[in-house]
Design brief:
This protein is mostly beta strands. The protein is built from one helix and eleven strands. β9 and β10 form a beta hairpin. The relative contact order is 0.20.
Length: 202
C-alpha cells in the first residue's frame, strides 16, 4: 500500500513539473517586446568621425548612443527639488539659452540630476521628432545631432513628472572636438518644454 502511494506521488510531481515548464515557456514569450516604431533619423548622425570623448564606454542602440559616465563632475548630489508641494511655478516653458558654434555636429548629454523617479521627455530638432519617449535616469542619455547651417531649435518636452514633481534634468552640449559649449537644467510640469537654440556658423 505504501508503494502505491509513493508511485502516485512521484507521478503527480512529474505532471506538475511538466505544467510548470509549459507555464515558464509561455511567460517568457509575453516579454518579447517589439522595437519602438516611427522614429526618424533626419538630421541625426551617430558616427561623427571624431575621437571618442574620454570617460565614456559606447554602446550602439538604434539611433541613439548610450554610455556610462565616469567623469567625476557628474557625481550625483541629490538636492531633492522634486516632490515639492507647490509646482505651479514650473508650469511654463523654459529657455536654456543659445549657443554659437562652427561645429557640424553636437553631442547632447541629458540626465535626471535629482531623484530618479521615471521622468520622460520627447526630443525634437527643428520641429522633427528625434525620439518620442526618453526615460531620464541618473546615468546620462546621449545622442549626437547633425546641425544645419543657421539656427537649430532643440526642444525637450516633459511627457510626465515621474513619481515626484516636477520633471527635472541636467543638460550638457559638446561640440565635435569634445569641448563643452553649453549646459543647463530644467524643472518642468507635464506638457511644457525646455528650448535650446544652436547657431551653426560658417
Amino acid at each position: 500500500m505504501s508503494y502505491a502511494q509513493l508511485d502516485t506521488a512521484q507521478e503527480t510531481l512529474r505532471i506538475k513539473a511538466k505544467e510548470l515548464a509549459k507555464e515558464n515557456q509561455n511567460s517568457s514569450q509575453l516579454f518579447n517586446l517589439s522595437p519602438v516604431r516611427g522614429l526618424t533619423n533626419k538630421n541625426v548622425k551617430i558616427t561623427m568621425g571624431i575621437p571618442p570623448i574620454d570617460g565614456f564606454r559606447k554602446e550602439e542602440r538604434g539611433i541613439t548612443t548610450t554610455k556610462d559616465v565616469v567623469d567625476p563632475t557628474w557625481d550625483i548630489k541629490q538636492k531633492f527639488v522634486e516632490n515639492q508641494k507647490d509646482v505651479s511655478k514650473y508650469a511654463k516653458d523654459f529657455y536654456l539659452g543659445d549657443i554659437k558654434t562652427k561645429s557640424k555636429y553636437i553631442r547632447l548629454i541629458c540626465r535626471d540630476h535629482e531623484y530618479e523617479d521615471g521622468d520622460r521627455i520627447k526630443l525634437m530638432l527643428n520641429k522633427v521628432t528625434i525620439h518620442p519617449n526618453i526615460l531620464l535616469r541618473n546615468s546620462p542619455y546621449i545622442i549626437d545631432i547633425d546641425l544645419e547651417e543657421g539656427l537649430n531649435t532643440i526642444q525637450f518636452y516633459a511627457l510626465n513628472e515621474g513619481s515626484s514633481s516636477p520633471n527635472t534634468a541636467e543638460l550638457k552640449v559638446i561640440d565635435e572636438n569634445g569641448n563643452i559649449i553649453g549646459s543647463g537644467k530644467w524643472l518642468l510640469t507635464t506638457g511644457y518644454k525646455a528650448k535650446l537654440i544652436v547657431l551653426r556658423q560658417k
